[in-house]
Amino acid sequence: MKNSTLLLLILFSTSFLWKTQAQTIPEIFCPAEIVVSNDTGNCSAVVTFNPATATDVEDGDLTTSQTLGLTSGSDFPVGENSIEFSVTDSDANTVTCQFTVTVQDTEVPVLVCGPYSILYDTGSVSNSPNLFFGDGVPIITSVINIIDNFTVSDIIIELDISHSYSGDVAATLTSPEGTSVFYFR
User: Fold this and answer.
1) What is the CA radius of gyration of the chain?
2) pTM above 0.70, yes or no
3) Residue that wins the pLDDT comparison between 143 and 19
């Protein structure tokens, strides 16, 4: 009995052939980082790029798929935009790569004051506001609109009021959100 058990064990262990194969993952190559200026008059830019490329030892050249971000030829907004490509080989090995498309707003904003457009590059604006006489009291109004897609955190306004009026001068500055500053002299 001991001999037959041993023989069966030897036959069983030699009947399996282990198949070993070197598993390699594909290599993927993304385009370099892209930095562009915004298109004139827009807070964005149309950007084109080539797709990522990939190769595998076993499969050769592979076709990549874009899995994140706007596609080539799209209108990219100002800021950083992530793009990702991935590829999977015949052994189900998946790899990804990413790059960034950065659109910089390099245009100088334009201020529109009343009927005048003034290029805002010196940090100052000069305006001759509209004058209106209501109930015998002169009322001066002026509106400054900032034409660009960015946030203004602070505006410094200096009032240089030259007049021959013998009474007091008062001014109220009101923001679009309703915050008011009252000036009296």
Assistant:
1) 35
2) no
3) 143
